[in-house]
Automatic annotation (TrEMBL):
Residues 1-27 form the signal peptide. The keyword Transferase applies. It comes from the Bacteria. The chain crosses the membrane at residues 407-427. One of its GO terms (molecular function) is phosphorelay sensor kinase activity. This is Histidine kinase domain-containing protein. PROSITE patterns: HIS_KIN, TPR. It comes from Arsenicibacter rosenii. GO terms for cellular component: membrane. TPR repeats lie at residues 171-204. Residues 448-641 form the Histidine kinase domain. Keywords: Kinase, Membrane, Signal, TPR repeat, Transferase, Transmembrane, Transmembrane helix, Two-component regulatory system.
C-alpha cells in the first residue's frame, strides 16, 4: 500500500526533525512560548536558535507561509552575526518544509546548502547534526524513487555515526535502509534493519524514536510474504501511547491508521473504524493528504465488510480522488481496482467495467515505469551489497579497535596490579629487613651491655658491700681504696655505654667518624706513655658509609689493639694506618715494642675477641709479632660488606 508506505516516511521525517526542539509539550503552548521569546528582540545566536525551533513548530501545523517568513529572517540574521550552526538548522527546516509540500527537488537544494556549510565550517557545525542531515537527504531521494542515492545517504549516516560513536537520533537511518530493502523485495533483510532500529531506539534519550521504530517494525511484520498481523498489532500498540503522550501528530496519525488496517485484516471492523476516525481528524487538521487517502481507502473496505455500502462508496471515491490529486499512479491503480471489485459485488457492472478498463490502461502506462524501476532496483541491489560490505568492514575495524583498546586497558591494569604487587613485596621485604636489623641491634646492645656493663656492675655491687664492712670495722684506708675502685669501674661503665650509643648513632656511619674517634682515643694514651704516634688515612674517601655492625666491630678491634699496645708493648713508636687495596679496606696497627710469642696467646689480651669480631664482618685479622721486633696487626674487610 503505497500511501501507507509514504505515510511511514512522512512520520519518519516528522519525528526525525524533532532534534531542533528541546521540549515538546502541547503544540499551542509551544508556539506561544516561542513567540513570546522572539518578542524580546535580542539578536544573537540564542535568538536564531529560537527562530529555528519556532519555524519547526509551525511546520508541524502546516503553517508554511508563516514558516517561510521566519526562514528568511533567520537566514538574514544568521549570516549577519556569522552563525553557521543556526544557518545549518534553518536550511534543514526549509528542506523539511518543502518536503511536506511535495517539493522534494527544491528541498534537495537546501540540503546541499547545509552540506556546503559543513564543508566550509567543519568545526562550527555540531557533529551530531550531520547524520541527521544525511538521513533527511536519504528521505528526499526515496520520495523521488531514487533508491540507490537514498541508500547511499542512509548508509553514510550510519557510517558517520559509528565512526564518531554518535547514538543520538541515528534510529531513522536504520529505518531508511530497511525501507529501501523493503522496496527491493528483501523483506528479511529489511526486518533485520528495523530490528536494529528498534534496539537503537531503546538507547536513545528521545522516546519519539521508539514510535518510529515500533511503527516500522509493525509495517515489516504485516506486509511481509508471511504476514504476522497479531505481532504487528503489538508493535503498533506499543507505539501508540508514546505518540499520544508526546503529541507527535504525524506519527500518531500513521500509527492509528496502521492499527485500523491490521484490525481490518483481522476482521475487527468496528475497532478498525474507531482508530481510523481518530486518524482522519488529525489528517484533516494538519493537511496530511497522502495519509488521509490511506484512511479513506481502509475505512471504505471496513464499511464494505459491514455492508454500509453508501459509506463504503464515499470513502473509496475520496481515496481515489486524493491519489489522483497527489499524482500517485500506483495507488490510483490499486484504488480503481478496489472500486471495480466493489461495484461488481454490488451489481453495478457498468461502473465496475469502467474502473476495470481504466485500471488496465493504467497498468499499461505503468509497465514502462515498473520496468525502469526494476532496472533501478537491480542497480540499487548491487550498490547495496557494496555499501553493506563497506559497513561490515567498518564494523569489523571498529570491533578490532575496541578489542585493541580493551587489550591495552586490560594489559595496563594487569601491569599496574603487577607493579603494585612488586611494590608491596619490596616494601614488605624492606620492612622485614628493617625489623631484622632492629632485632639484631637490640640483641647486640643487650649482648654488649651484658658483656661490658653487667660484670662491672656486679663488681661495683660487691665492692660497695665490702666498703660498708670495712667502714664498720674502722678501716678507712682500705675503704678508700675500694671507693677508688668503684669510681674507676663506674667510669668504665660510662665509657662503655658511651661507646654503645656512639655505634648506634646514624650520624656516625662514615669512615671519617670512625677514624676520628680512634684518633681521639689513641692520642692521649700514646702521649701518656711518651709514644710517638702516627695516624695515616692514605687519602681514603672519608664519606665512605659504614654499617652499624661493621662500625662497632671495627672500632672495638682498633680500640682493643691500641689498648694492648699501650699496656704491654713498651714501644716508643706506633702507627695506625687506614688504606684501600682494590675493593678492600685494610687497617694496620704497628709498634716497635718488645713483641710477644703469638703461639703462647693469652686470653686476657683480647685476641680471641678481636678475631671473633673480624669474622662477624666477614673480614680477616692477622697478628704478627716476634720477641724484640715489635708487633703488627692487620685487619682486612671487604668494602662490599661495608655498604
Amino acid at each position: 500500500m503505497r500511501a501507507l508506505f509514504f505515510g511511514c516516511i512522512g512520520s519518519f521525517v516528522v519525528a526525525f526533525s524533532l532534534s531542533l526542539s528541546t521540549a515538546m509539550g502541547q503544540a499551542a503552548q509551544q508556539l506561544d512560548s516561542l513567540a513570546n521569546r522572539l518578542s524580546g528582540r535580542v539578536y544573537d545566536s540564542a535568538y536564531v536558535d529560537t527562530q529555528n525551533r519556532y519555524s519547526w513548530q509551525l511546520l508541524q501545523h502546516s503553517g508554511f507561509k508563516r514558516a517561510d517568513s521566519v526562514f528568511r529572517e533567520t537566514e538574514r540574521l544568521a549570516n549577519r552575526i556569522d552563525y553557521p550552526a543556526g544557518l545549518h538548522q534553518m536550511y534543514y527546516n526549509r528542506a523539511l518544509s518543502l518536503y511536506y509540500q511535495d517539493q522534494s527537488a527544491k528541498a534537495l537544494a537546501h540540503v546541499q546548502k547545509a552540506r556546503a556549510l559543513e564543508q566550509a565550517y567543519p568545526n562550527r557545525i555540531p557533529v551530531q547534526h550531520r547524520p541527521m542531515l544525511l538521513s533527511l537527504t536519504g528521505v528526499l531521494y526515496f520520495a523521488n524513487h531514487a533508491y540507490a542515492q537514498s541508500l547511499h545517504y542512509y548508509l553514510a549516516a550510519i557510517k558517520l555515526a559509528e565512526q564518531r560513536h554518535i547514538t543520538y537520533r541515528i534510529t531513522p537511518a536504520y529505518l531508511g535502509v530497511g525501507n529501501v530493502l523493503k522496496v527491493m523485495n528483501k523483506p528479511d533483510q529489511a526486518l533485520s534493519y528495523y530490528q536494529k532500529a528498534l534496539d537503537v531506539s531503546r538507547l536513545e534519550p528521545e522516546p519519539r524514536m521508539r514510535v518510529l521504530a515500533e511503527n516500522h517494525m509493525g509495517d515489516a511484520l504485516s506486509e511481509s510474504a508471511r504476514p504476522d498481523f497479531p505481532k504487528a498489532l503489538i508493535h503498533y500498540l506499543n507505539a501508540l501511547p508514546v505518540a499520544e503522550r508526546y503529541g507527535v501528530r504525524g506519527p500518531l496519525s500513521d500509527v492509528l491508521t496502521n492499527i485500523g488496517r491490521v484490525h481490518l485484516v483481522l476482521g475487527h471492523y468496528q475497532q478498525a473504524l474507531r482508530f481510523l476516525k481518530r486518524s482522519e481528524v488529525i489528517c484533516r487538521k494538519d493537511s496530511l493528504s497522502d495519509q488521509l487517502g490511506a484512511v479513506y481507502w481502509i475505512a471504505g473496505q471496513a464499511y464494505q465488510a459491514l455492508r454500509h455500502y453508501p459509506l463504503a462508496e464515499k470513502n473509496l471515491l475520496n481515496a481515489l480522488q486524493i491519489a489522483r490529486q497527489i499524482g500517485d499512479a500506483d495507488e490510483t491503480r490499486k484504488r480503481m481496482q478496489t472500486l471495480a471489485g466493489f461495484y461488481q459485488k454490488s451489481g453495478r457492472y457498468e461502473l465496475a467495467y469502467r474502473y476495470e478498463h481504466q485500471t488496465a490502461l493504467l497498468n499499461d502506462s505503468l509497465f514502462n515505469v515498473q520496468a525502469a524501476r526494476h532496472t533501478q532496483e537491480l542497480t540499487t541491489k548491487y550498490e547495496t551489497a557494496q555499501k553493506e560490505s563497506q559497513l561490515k568492514l567498518l564494523r569489523a575495524e571498529s570491533a578490532q579497535a575496541r578489542l585493541r583498546t580493551s587489550a591495552i586497558l586490560i594489559g595496563a591494569i594487569l601491569l599496574m596490579l603487577l607493579a603494585g604487587a612488586v611494590t608491596a613485596y619490596l616494601l614488605n621485604r624492606a620492612r622485614l629487613r628493617r625489623l631484622e636489623e632492629a632485632q639484631r641491634l637490640r640483641q647486640q646492645i643487650a649482648r654488649d651491655l651484658h658483656d661490658e656493663v653487667g660484670s662491672t656492675l656486679s663488681s661495683i655491687s660487691l665492692l660497695s658491700g665490702h666498703t660498708d664492712k670495712l667502714l664498720s670495722e674502722n678501716r678507712p684506708e682500705m675503704a678508700q681504696r675500694m671507693v677508688q675502685k668503684i669510681y674507676t669501674d663506674a667510669r668504665q661503665i660510662l665509657e662503655s655505654i658511651d661507646e654503645i650509643i656512639w655505634t648506634i648513632n646514624p650520624g656516625n656511619d662514615s669512615l671519617q667518624r670512625i677514624m676520628q674517634r680512634l684518633r681521639e682515643y689513641a692520642q692521649p694514651l700514646m702521649e701518656s706513655k711518651n709514644i710517638r704516634f702516627t695516624f695515616d688515612t692514605d687519602q681514603l674517601p672519608e664519606s665512605l658509609p659504614i654499617p652499624m655492625d661493621v662500625r662497632r666491630n671495627l672500632y672495638m678491634i682498633g680500640k682493643e689493639a691500641i689498648n694492648n699496645l699501650v699496656k704491654y708493648a713498651d714501644a716508643t713508636e706506633a702507627t695506625v694506618r687506614f688504606e684501600k687495596q682494590t675493593n678492600q679496606l685494610v687497617v694496620r696497627i704497628e709498634d716497635n715494642g718488645k713483641g710477644f710469642d703469638t703461639e703462647a696467646v693469652s686470653i686476657r689480651n683480647g685476641q680471641q675477641s678481636m678475631k671473633r669480631r673480624a669474622e662477624e664482618m666477614d673480614g680477616q685479622l692477622i697478628i704478627t709479632s716476634r720477641a724484640g721486633h715489635g708487633t703488627a696487626l692487620q685487619l682486612t674487610v671487604g668494602l662490599a660488606s661495608t655498604l
